[in-house]
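Curious: can you check?
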Amino acid sequence: MADHRILVLADDLTGALEVGAKFAAAGVRSQVRTVQNLLPRDLHDATGALVVDTETRHAKAAEAARRVYDLACAAHGQGFSHVYKKTDSTLRGNIGVELAALIDAYEGSPLLYVPAYPQMRRTVRNGSLYVDGVRVGATCFAHDPFNPVKESHIPTLLAASCRVPVRSGPVRDVMNCVPSCIAVCDGETDAEVEAAARAFISSANFRLAAGPAGFATQLARLMDMPRRREPPALPSARNALIVNGSLHKVSLQQVEQAKREGFRAIDSRSISDAATEGGWIILEEGSGTSGATFDFAKSLARSVCQLLVRSPLDALVVFGGDTAYAIVEAIGHPPLHPLGEVMEGIPISRIEAKQFGAHIGHRDRDLYLVTKAGSFGPPTVLASLRDSLGER
């Protein structure tokens, strides 16, 4: 089988970095770019996996469809063999219109959608998504402040926003899908997700796929990709700033647990003191009840930039896609180089000093970015991250 190039489109930055990390961990060269700083030559020169954050999670449906369509058409013209649409594992965002836009761009190619992510306790049975065994529409995701998910049955959810025919069932039943069709694949185990990936790769008809990072894990491992190499080792991060821009109770509990475990918390008024003390510290503004707005995310980003100027930070640990994006925007949208995952669903990426130093003053060291979706991880996740990166 010939080598492949794959374009991955994610609707927020944490999702983009998560998928980039899956390919990096499989030895595939990957790079993550934001759509605002993507140049035509990036598509032309890309090898392996190019991951683009389209920033369409909160966009209006028509704008989300346009961005995805334009990027997919560009990829088609540049000879990308496959396009992967990274979707939220709890069905948030403009999924229906974005999948339809991919099909339009690739001239009616069928699309395989595998929404299950068993390792993160997301499973699909009879076309419905379950989180921890509960239909997603009956969980806290039904009350998301920006993208509430009321519908658990995926074909019904897709039908509400696009006219593309949808089939649903086990992979063996949906792989004979007709052109211009979305095939939604059930899955409750890693083995079923792997079987779907193998069926997709061996198919002569399917060039488009979608799903959360669990399906991307299998594609990264199984696809014939160019220039595979040993995955990079995890770096050391003795001085890290923790920034929580998520209101999800999981993230709030993780921050409170870290404080009980001795993590020091600061606010913007303590930035000068924090610059000299170092260690793993929590930026307190990101851990309260005023978060989860775009203006608040930008405010957090400004505080982070102040610390980057004054403190020898090795890493940023950021909870929430909007906050991660605001920080990357504040330092000039540099290319992000995924290294792998510190824990399942928690990627780490490298930002080269020469790519962002001009935006915060002189900096002579690379910066590592650890990102996490608000709903991911155990209560002790910050202590685990510090153990993995900080005490080396």
Remarks:
- Confidence is low (pLDDT under 50) at residues 286-291.
